[in-house]
Amino acid sequence: MKIITKDIKFLLFKARKIGINNKTDLFITFILLVGVFATLTNFLNWIFFHANWEVVSRNLNLYIIGTYPKALSWRPFLWISIIILLSFTTLLKKLNYIKKRFIYICWLLIIPLGIYLLAGGINIIPISTNFWGGLSLTLILTFISIIIALPIGILLALGRQSNLLIIKKITSLYIDCMRSVPLIAILFFGQLLTPLLLPVGMEINRVIRAIFSFSIFVSAYISEDIRGGLQSVPQNQIEAAKVLGLNKYQINKFIVLPQALIIAIPALTNQAIGLLQNTSLMAILGLVELLGISRSILANPQFIGSHLEVYVWLALIYWLVCTIIALLAKKIERHFSKSLNFQGDL
Amino acid sequence: MSQTIIAKSLVKSFSQNKLALNDVSLEVQKGEVLVIMGPSGSGKSTLIRTFNGLERIDKGELNILGLRLNSFSNDEIIKKIRKRVGMVFQQFNLFPHLTVLSNITLAPIQVQNKDKKHAEKSAYELLVQMGIEEHAFKYPKQLSGGEQQRVAIARALALNPEIMLFDEPTSALDPERVNEVLDAIKSLAKKGMTMIIVTHEIEFAKEAADRVLFMDEGRVVEITTPEIFFTNAKNERSRRFLNQLSK
Amino acid sequence: MRFTKSYIIQYLFLLIIILFLILIINNVHFNLIRTGLGFDFAWLFRPASFSLAEHILPYSPSNSFAWALLVGWTNSLRVIFVALIFSTIIGISAGILGKSHNYILKFISRLYILIIRQTPLLLQLLFWYFVGFLSIRNPVNIIVPIINISNQGINIFGYILTPEFSSLIIGLSVFTGAYIAEIVRGGLNSVPKGQWEAYKSLGISDSIGLKDIIIPQALPAILPGLTSQYLNLAKNSTLAIAVGYADIYAVSDTVINQTGKSIEGFILLLIGFLFINLIISNIMEFFNRNILKNKA
Ligand SMILES: Nc1ncnc2c1ncn2[C@@H]1O[C@H](COP(=O)(O)OP(=O)(O)OP(=O)(O)O)[C@@H](O)[C@H]1O
Ligand SMILES: [Mg+2]
What number is the ipTM of this complex? Predict the structure, then answer.
């Protein structure tokens, strides 16, 4: 008898620990559990017994490299494998100083390597961007656009903070206009208008036009995130630097910007993730990146009605890539914010 | 000329109805240690911040190491002064994203164009002098307050200043950490550094100060030797302040 | 001396910008001559001669391009307004549930945010449209005669919402709701723990405590984020084109395809969105100021 009351007390204690305090709580929890359970079993049931995964398994190559020539498909595959490998080493290994440096350099080399492998050129056969597609196109669009947008964003942020009135006004105008237009419009007109802006006879291809549009769009958003970072660097830091005789340029370069960038890492990560998701908009404008290629697969009469399978599969890929980016950024942030006493909890 | 600082009738206000500095005049000799005391809001910080141009004065004239500073002075003069006057803050204001060593070498490398090796060597000597050489490669946040403040002193000293300004250098410290910082300042005094120190540490002032300046409501109330100031201050206001401090 | 230096920098910068603009305008000018397009707005008053599946204002293909664009705008505003309300409701509920003491509620809220924020909006819209509506074989009656969902859309009291409109509303609301939930959660977290404990120790119920004590204090931290989510929602509504809803962007797209007037079309779209942004941020600014005033 004594033991039973003890057990019940222990159960009640456990229940309280997960937030069940009274009968209403118990009731709600019960209903929720049933709901969650039913949804989960339905979903799993569908995944394992009803879904027809042929639409995924028979087109795996297409999802990852698009219509890239079969014989050369090792090139995009190699690139993606290196990215995956690098991500996992960065995430899983505890790294010392030298290895950190090495990995840092590897990440910087990912973009030129990707361009070289996909586009070809010296020593390997050139492949037109018309054949790029799938996840490899999604990734390269994201990486290149971010790497272009970041320095522009920094300059815009500094411009908007500047006390030179003309520079401040022009950068503000640019940032505010860019931020009020929908991305799809920028992309559409980027495709349509860039030929008009260029000198007669000069032409650039669709992928480069897309990168151009993404960069000018995202740079405006990035600049606002960095401005937020700049504003949260405490005033006494600037004062301390002044006292040491540093000039304005040096104060920005050594004291304010590094701290602002560290503060802005979470916001910048969100921009990168947002950009990766938004590359899917190019599906509307005729690029066959991950979503675009899926739409053409779904248009194939053979796979009619397989929308749900394809969308679940795509959601999984996007979710995985975005989550990996988020984790990488967390790692970087933790590394840097160790030093900032007003950021992070390490 | 042995005066390093000459202030003539300094006036400074932040708002219309109140003067933060009200006709302040003083002279500081080379090698002298001047302690400034006074109640909160009396203008102590404002006064020493004018000495390196962190605050501009509205009226009056300053002569710092032969460089003249008034309300019209341009940034070039202020830059010249800052290179020769070091300052230590109450809140340390170390750069959190740089290691202790980089905090100290930043200005010598960037402002004085010293080469890195040379700068690091002198920085290390300063850290030894401050007794914190084992922390050279840590970040400020990993240090105790007293250690951080000593890094801040080393950072200011790295530029070989001719004058050092301290604004309540021990007010943000735990009581048991106060002395390690005060000892570092005393050792500077022994080496003949010209220093102006805002502090409420009576024992320290008695021991290290050549003169004590007492301020109230933006005015200099009294400026005498510590012996006279602490045993028989002339001014009624000073006596009341000292009474409160020793309570 | 510094004065003049900064002036030189500024004018140099201005000069570069102007030269750049001249270069671009010059290129555009030549290209327009070359392609025979020119630059004017006279086409706005020619008949549009395309049809629109959905419109609140009366519309027929014989109406002018200008009228077609206006119809597009009204369609956009309809979506933005409705989705704005639903996303706010979803976001605030999910944000508050994320702070619930019940682990399962908390888990559901976190899972929702986690899934929605890490997948593209466009994918979600396609999902709601093709899977959520078009593939329904047996109509679903929620409250038998009142709400009926089928591949023809949603039927409420005999008022029919098309599948395009419905999927757009659901997709935008669910997507934006996840972002709003995150902002609400952050805002609630910004209220010191002592405030929660204080109302609890006074015996005030959670719902009253939230309404009268916590949310008023969290609002200043929530409102700026909320504003930018509303602005994003307005911009994201242009993905309507993916599910075939005739919003302003879809109409502009058709108009430009028919007339070739891409620059003019872009300028009109830009002005429209600047205007919408202005409206949303001013309304939010008004709220913001009133709340701050009440606090003081
Ligand atoms: N940046 C500022 N803006 C407006 N008023 C200021 C500013 N700095 C100082 N003051 C005012 O000037 C007066 C003198 O301030 P100051 O900081 O010099 O006092 P203090 O003697 O250093 O006081 P404490 O012991 O509290 O540090 C005060 O009334 C203060 O409110
Ligand atoms: Mg002070």
Answer: 0.89
